[in-house]
Amino acid sequence: MAGGVIVADSGGKQYHSHVTAYVIVTCIVAATGGLMFGYDIGISGGVTSMDEFLSKFFPSVYRKSKDVTSDTNQYCKFDSQLLTLFTSSLYLAALVASFIASTISRVFGRKVTMFGGGIMFLAGSLLNGFAQNVAMLIAGRILLGIGVGFANQAVPLYLSEMAPPHIRGALNIAFQLAITTGILIANLLNYGLSKMERNGWRWSLGLAAIPALIMSIGAIFLPDTPNSFIQRGQNDKARQVLQNIRGTEDVNNEFEDLLEASEVARLVTNPWGNILRSQYRPQLVITLLIAFFQQLTGINVIMFYAPVLFKTLGFGDDASLMAAVITGLVNMFSTLVSLFTVDKFGRRILFLQGGIQMIICQLVVGSMIAAEFGTSGQGDFSRSAGNVTITFICLYVAGFAWSWGPLAWLVPSEIFPLEIRSAGQSINVSVNMLFTFIIGQVFLTLLCHMKFGLFYFFGGFVIIMTIFVYFFVPETKNAPIDEMNKVWKAHWFWARFIPDNAAGLGQRKSSTYTPLV
Ligand code: BGC
Questions:
Q1: pLDDT confidence of 2, banded at 50, 70, 90?
Q2: Closest ligand 1 atom, CA of 183?
Q3: Per-residue pLDDT for 78 more than 70?
Q4: Is 266's pLDDT higher than 60?
Q5: What average pLDDT does the chain have?
Q6: CATH no. for 18-504
Q7: Considering the entire predicted model, what is its pTM?
Q8: Distance (Å, rounded) from C-alpha 152 to C-alpha 426?
Q9: I want to staple 355 with a disulfide (CB 3.0 to 4.6 A). Which of 121, 384, 410, 466 is the partner?
Q10: How many angstroms separate the alpha carbon of residue 183 from the centre of ligand 1?
Q11: How far apart (Å, rounded) are the C-alpha atoms in residues 340 and 448?
């Protein structure tokens, strides 16, 4: 057990808890879930730029990428639907799997879902590592996608149900930190393994088995969450787990709240129908748009295709993979900025500052590429132009990493009332995956047709989303989850949707919370 007793005020009652070893293990499991997702995001771009991989599975792309004749259009040399399908098929599978996972985690528990996710991911990584043809590659990607869908549905739920209330926010961003760590590890491995004479790509793809094994084994040994036990009628086990994870016998207040919350949730038999009611309109609209907008920042153009993009900009193989490592480092370290500031400065400041930074960077990158390649796609990047471009790409990644990266997972998870929270989470995951798929699938074609304008295209979306945040996303920093209706009620636009008798509006004696916006 680490640390002393913490008395946290939640829902007007006092919860007693220590930060126990169980909670720390919880973080590690969450981290493995994030690692699997991140490893996957980072690995495919590097692999698809490895010559041996391309020549074996995508020979026509390989030939085009090696074509140095003067009429080669730089924007189009990697454009291949099959190549993009390799990257993006995973996200389509994850989208479907996240709905299945929500039922499995309700009926069988979070633990089983995480275990299932780990095993699927393991099977996918083996299939990919030993792949002999494109069909095996894509089947492997689909299994990996099911693993990601399961993990992204269950791990954040598991985390927030295990975490003591006073560290829940930080733990949420720790999930994104794990995603970025996974991306960085993948970038580093790609860099090292691309130097292997043969089969470097097999190791890159096959080593995904390690985070998968850690997650599967972790899931076997971890207890399920108290909420999940209660949901399945095992109240004694729930109380026991709660005592263990809080490090104290005195868990009555929290236990009663869990029972009560699960009673309320049980009254709502159809969360999918309920979520459409007008009183939930603010949460629904904001979640749909946040998940959609996060992908329309264009971040995954960098995460998936950084090496391919850098090659397009005229860097050599090695320099391209190295540049991906640099963006990976920037991504991971910048996430720490939000972890340490999100509860102090609030979500809105991070969203707005990060958004403005991204817009400026996208304009600069688009203009640099326009200046060097123009619309014909002919020419070469000079070293200095390449360096300026990479610098602005890094500043763009940093802006994302302390704003839309973590906040797109944090904000939707904290604005829904309990009765529709898990349905809300499914919507968040699936919309995110859908647009991850679409961007992954169309990026190389878009680059080929929109050329440098692609960066202005995503920049335009960041302008729209920054204006949207300014007017429509209220500050949720420090707002107790069960008093979120006060936030909507104080908002110039959303107030009209919240009935005057909505839950959480009455002044509780113990409540000192006043909305900020
Ligand atoms: C996004 C991913 C993205 C990653 C980059 C996550 O929050 O959902 O699509 O690749 O951040 O760090």
A1: very low
A2: 12
A3: no
A4: yes
A5: 83
A6: 1.20.1250.20
A7: 0.86
A8: 9
A9: 466
A10: 9
A11: 40
